[in-house]
Design a protein that fits this description.
173 residues, alpha/beta, six-stranded parallel sheet, three-stranded antiparallel sheet, 5 helices, 21% strand
């Protein structure tokens, strides 16, 4: 298997913790951690196997006047990525209690950009193990990647990651 690039954002907090946990499960020699706010599009050229990790921000952030979240700032760069020969897997963090109608929505936003570019996406996850009302990350009845809820289901995170890694390892080049 080729080396994996794990591109994630935001820095610190649950998204970074989950990115590091995924890297540790894959092995640090097999996967590099790359903070999305620090990259150039050419950084994607180094990898055929790519994991993208994001969070779905809450209303207090949307309304706050804070700087754009990392993935929103990167959004225009998706047009510059060379997608052929690359395989993508995605994970997203969300809160199924406070935001059940927007559970891991940003995971779906990023996936839909990749789909519009004809990118190969692996690692879909069954929705049955999750409680939520709506999610933009549901495509054809499955989550387009791995949903993680560190706020209210952190006890499930490690097992979910281990099961997901088994699936993506089989499908990475």
């Amino acid at each position: 298997m080729e080396k994996i690039g794990i591109f994630y954002g935001p820095q610190s907090g649950s998204t970074e913790r989950v990115a590091k946990l995924i890297q540790s499960k894959l092995g640090a020699d097999n996967a590099d951690l790359i903070l999305i706010k620090n990259i150039k599009v050419t950084d994607f050229d180094k990898y055929q196997n790519i994991i993208l990790g994001c969070s779905t921000i809450g209303g207090e952030t949307w309304d706050s006047g804070r700087p754009k979240p990392d993935w929103d700032a990167f959004r225009s760069e998706f047009d510059k990525i060379e997608y052929s020969g690359k395989t993508f897997a995605l994970f997203g963090l969300g809160d199924n209690i406070s935001y059940p109608r927007h559970f891991v929505d940003n995971l779906g936003v990023i996936a839909k950009i990749l789909i519009s570019k004809n990118a190969t996406i692996i690692g879909q996850t069954n929705k049955d193990d999750y409680e939520f009302t709506e999610s933009e990350a549901l495509i054809d009845g499955k989550f387009v990647g791995l949903p993680i809820d560190e706020d209210f289901e952190s006890e499930k995170t490690e097992e979910r990651i281990e099961n997901w890694i088994k699936v993506i390892k089989q499908n990475f080049i």
